[in-house]
Amino acid sequence: MTILEAIKERHSVRSFTDQPLSAEAISALREAIDECNRESGLKIQLITDEPKAFGTSKMAHYGKFSGVRNYLALVGPKDDPLLDEKVGYYGERLVLLAQQLGLNTCWVVLTYKKQTDVVAIAPGERLRCVIAMGYGTTQGVAHKVKDVGKVCRSKTGEMPDWFCRGLAAALLAPTALHQQKFKFTLLSDNKVEARAGFGYCTKIDLGIVKYHFEVGAGVENFTWK
Length: 225
What we know:
- By secondary structure, the chain is α/β, with parallel strands linked by helices.
- It has helices spanning 3-9, 23-40, 52-55, 58-62, 83-100, 161-171, 202-217; strands at 45-47, 70-77, 104-108, 125-134, 152-154, 182-186, 191-196, 223-224.
- It is built from seven helices and eight strands; from the N terminus they run H-H-E-H-H-E-H-E-E-E-H-E-E-H-E.
- Helix 1 crosses helix 5 and helix 2 (23-40) packs antiparallel against helix 5 (83-100).
């Protein structure tokens, strides 16, 4: 499965089987996590076979989660002004890798219970959110997407193919409450500006959609403003 195929096939899943993660999947995820942490300054952690974060939480019940025993803990410096965007960007990079490995995932900001005995959080750091992970009981369902014209504009008067491909991939990205509050603007010299709107977790969403845009558009075709 290519990463573009993973973007199209990945949907949020909240119910998981009791099948443990394969050794191959764990190894691939940990290798990718190490790379993401080196690049970003985050401290993302893979937590396996840990049922308490979702199994004992009333909020998890409210979020309709079941069978969650594995998750990514997205931890980073509290004083990093780009913390939310980095969490979204690198978390989604790992989400799409998980899809390629045959796993299912769901972004979770509130409906879990923080487990400080298994997630390492140093002074000055924050657990921003987690990503539930495992073998889903279903493959999830696609969410509705906005019309492309509502999430973009071009100051050059044209929309090259690479820009349209990036937008198509961005519209398939998961966002909180499916709100899709973001906008991409094509500037001169193939520069692209991406902005988050106002709303719940929109800066995390911005990081997620920027990663999708890069995959769809091809990083060789543009630079971020």
